[in-house]
Amino acid sequence: MLAALYHLFTGFFKIGLFTIGGGYAMLPLMQEEIARYGWITPAEFIDIIAIAEMTPGAIAVNTATFAGFRTAGIIGAIVATAALALPSLLIIVPLSNFWEVHREHPILKAVFNGIKPAVAGLIGAAAIYIGRTALLYDPLLSKGDGFPVDLRSLIIAAAVFFAVRKFRVDPIKTIIVSGIVGLIVFGL
To answer: Is 49:59 a contact under the CB 8 Å cutoff?
Structure first.
């Protein structure tokens, strides 16, 4: 139990420390740590991302809480969540005064101009991982040995993508309708 808590703390502290750009930018590093320690399966990772999108709170915090709970119960959830948030607290509080005074400094601007595309790349990597796992992985079809194309998932994703891009549909309504479609297509 102590070893699991130690790994949860160090893994999520590292994620919180080395990720700039918010929850989506954290996902590639989070996925790497989760795979390293086997806290949750790839399918569960995608499921928790979907759940985290529908529940209040940051996606990374919700994912850390779930992985911690899954690994070591309530104590694990507390440890993982606290470890994820601790680096921000330790860094941001002391640096906030420095930032207010020097945010227009050319060197600081140059550093953040370099970080912005890296954040976009991290978010893109997360999108590809999530898309591949959510759209191509069907545990009922693959039996753990690959990623057969699940045409139903691809059709739903394409319809949602088209609806969001073309008609700017409400995300909440989209999730609700997609859940109903999933019940009909996958459940019945």
So the answer is: yes
Note down pLDDT in tens along the chain; length 188 residues.
899 999 999 999 998 888 776 777 777 788 888 888 888 887 788 788 778 777 777 888 888 898 899 899 999 999 999 999 999 889 888 888 888 888 899 998 898 888 888 878 877 877 787 777 777 655 554 444 444 556 787 788 888 888 888 888 887 788 788 888 888 888 77
Residues 110, 155: one domain? no
Round to whole Å and give the CA distance between 93 and 86. Answer: 11
Based on the domain organization, do 69 and 49 belong to the same domain?
Answer: yes
Do 129 and 43 lie in one domain? The reply is yes
